[in-house]
Write a sequence for this structure.
């Protein structure tokens, strides 16, 4: 627990009334200093990187970049976190299973006070518990519509339809679009699970292609894309190209 100054916090919620209401309630039950309020996940990541708060009050359900996405993008740089959510059975069970603190909307002042007392005693959120919750959340995701990549304080939101192919590069995956290449710390197999199997196929242990970008298969061994790229096709990858996914 910090002893030199007041706890600095950021409130992250896409609803104006929810942000203002929580800000007022926190000021009434504690001496926590609210240093910023963010209305979306992209701004939240930038602001957290800039201001380095001690704790964030984090809404889960936000458009484009949700609360779980924010924590994934922050990684080990994430501060202590108190989740704020409308009742979500999945999220609540995950929080309780991993001993993570959360507030249900509408926030109860007494419950908020207890959360802040708990924060002052422990102050640090268990990073492994957060990783567990994010992992469970990812398993629930299929047919994703965008991929998030953090580059310093910049967050790139990549619509999956813009992806030409994904390529495994050691511990990273290179995500190739028409204009750029983005690197994300992830396994290629994770994207194989999450992407729409009607639109994306793993043609090789190192490659997943967007079928909309495929021009032809050459000699059963190479995928020729519409932009001229030539990617290897394995025997099992060739078979996958003709699989149907109900």
């Amino acid at each position: 627990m910090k002893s030199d100054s007041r706890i600095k916090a950021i409130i992250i919620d896409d609803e104006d009334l929810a942000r203002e209401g929580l800000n007022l309630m926190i000021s009434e039950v504690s001496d926590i200093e609210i240093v910023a309020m963010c209305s979306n996940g992209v701004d939240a990541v930038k602001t957290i990187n800039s201001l380095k708060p001690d704790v964030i009050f984090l809404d889960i359900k936000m458009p484009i970049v949700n609360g779980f996405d924010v924590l994934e993008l922050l990684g080990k740089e994430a501060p202590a976190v108190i989740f704020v959510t409308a009742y979500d059975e999945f999220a609540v069970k995950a929080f309780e299973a991993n001993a993570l603190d959360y507030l249900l909307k509408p926030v109860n002042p007494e419950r908020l006070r207890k959360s802040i007392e708990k924060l002052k005693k422990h102050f640090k959120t268990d990073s492994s518990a957060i990783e567990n919750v994010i992992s469970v959340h990812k398993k629930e995701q299929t047919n994703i519509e965008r991929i998030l990549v953090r580059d310093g304080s910049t967050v790139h939101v990549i619509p999956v339809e813009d992806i030409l192919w994904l390529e495994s590069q050691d511990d990273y995956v290179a995500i190739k679009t028409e204009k750029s290449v983005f690197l994300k710390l992830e396994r290629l197999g994770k994207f194989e699970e999450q992407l729409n199997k009607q639109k994306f196929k793993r043609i090789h242990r190192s490659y997943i292609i967007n079928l909309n970008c495929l021009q032809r298969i050459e000699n059963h061994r190479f995928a020729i894309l519409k932009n001229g790229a030539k990617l290897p096709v394995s025997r099992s990858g060739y078979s996958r190209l003709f699989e149907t996914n109900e």
Observations:
- The longest strand covers residues 163-169.
- The chain has a mean pLDDT of 90.
- The chain has two domains: 8-123, 146-241.
- The chain has eight helices and 15 strands.
